[in-house]
Amino acid sequence: MPAPQPTALGSDRPDKRRLPVLASGALAREDRSDVRVVSMHPVTRPRSARISITDRCDFACTYCRPSKNDGYAEKRLSVEGWRTTIAGLVEAGVRRVRITGGEPLVHPHVVEIVRMISGFGVEDLALTTNASQLTRLAKPLAEAGLRRVNVSIDSLRADRFEAITRGGALAPVLAGIEAAREAGLDPIKLNAVVLRGVNDDELEALVEYAWARRLVPRFLEVMPIAEGAKLVHDHLVPVAEMRARLASLVEDEEPTTEPDRGPARYLRSRRDPSLRVGFISGTSDTYCATCDRLRVSSSGVLRPCLATDEGVDASEAAEQGDAERVPDLLAEAWAKKPDGRSFKGCTEPSAARVSMRAIGG
Ligand code: SAM
Ligand code: SF4
Question: What residue's CA is closest to ligand 1, atom 9?
Answer without folding.
Answer: 361
